[in-house]
Design brief:
Order of helices and strands: HHEEHEHEEHHHEEHHEEEEH
CATH superfamily: DD-peptidase/beta-lactamase superfamily
Radius of gyration: 18 Å
Strand content: 15-25%
Mean pLDDT: 91
Strand order of the largest sheet: 2-1-11-10-9-8
Largest sheet: 6 strands, antiparallel
Number of helices: 10
Structural class: alpha+beta
């Protein structure tokens, strides 16, 4: 496991800092939440979920072994990919138009001009491939290194590596990454972070807001469906990452449904 940050909810004396850190790393690694396990069983879904608090470090995990297993990032990489594109091209904005080349794709929403925001929300592959071509492989290597994001297999193709299994990440690593995104720990501009936040916003309710991104690793066998992000409530911020085995297109609906039910189960939001 590659934990970048450990949050401890009480003050440790200097002489026992290491002991405290090791204790929390151990708890994080071995936690198994029965209520979340029951939730997956109830809906006959195989997968994992990690939900972790910003303030206390409290972490709930279902299926710890899978939570630490790396899978193709699929479109969840658009979170980092968007930051990279914004950093490399400061004139890029959420409403910047990406012109459609009139090639007809199998997903109807892709067959039109896009903005950066719409491309993110409909997971427009050709849009991000166009951006990737201008970023280049060397810069991707640089950004993946400084963010310690997943594991990249060399050699890779710069326009498909997040789709074809060359770049893999675990649910635990996703949560660590998202925490650092929220805390703005990586060396991206304030404008890049602000634009990403606007684009990632999924839902605003009176007592909470959710930022997130789905993903569907079609080339994996079996296929993997992702949902990652964070929810900000009046009292805390909770980071989440879930991936499931996708048996058919109906299973894709469970990516977000399971997270919503998990939030209710853990009393992060009300029913």
């Amino acid at each position: 496991m590659n934990h970048k940050t450990v949050y401890i909810n009480y003050m440790c004396k200097p002489q026992i800092i290491l002991t405290c850190a090791l204790f929390f790393l151990s708890a994080y690694a071995n936690a198994e939440d029965q209520a979340l396990s029951d939730l997956f069983s109830e809906h006959d879904i195989e997968g994992t979920v990690v939900i972790s608090s910003l303030n206390s470090g409290q972490t709930y995990i279902h299926n710890n072994s899978r939570a630490n297993q790396q899978f193709s990032t699929a479109s969840t990489f658009k979170i980092l990919n968007t930051l990279i594109a914004l950093q490399e091209n400061p004139t890029l904005q959420k409403d910047t138009v990406i012109k459609w080349d009139n090639h007809v794709y199998g997903i109807k929403n892709w067959n039109q001009d896009q903005t950066l925001e719409s491309a993110f929300k409909v997971s427009c592959v050709w849009c991000y491939q166009e951006l990737a071509g201008s970023i280049g492989a060397d810069k991707y290597r640089h950004y993946l290194k400084i963010t310690d994001y997943g594991q990249l297999r060399e050699p890779f193709k710069e326009t498909t590596f997040w789709l074809d299994g060359s770049l893999k990440i675990s649910a635990v690593e996703q949560v660590d990454f998202l925490r650092n995104i929220y805390l703005r720990s990586y060396p991206f501009s304030a404008q890049a972070y602000a634009t990403l936040s606007q684009i990632m916003l999924v839902e605003q309710a009176p007592t909470y807001s959710i930022w997130g991104k789905t993903g569907w690793a079609v080339s994996a066998n079996p296929q993997v469906g992702w949902y990652v992000g964070y929810i900000e409530t009046e009292k805390d911020v909770w980071f989440f990452a879930s991936n499931i085995i996708v048996r058919n297109k109906k299973d894709l609906l469970w990516r977000q449904k399971l997270i919503t039910e998990a939030f209710i189960e853990k009393e992060i939001i009300e029913p």
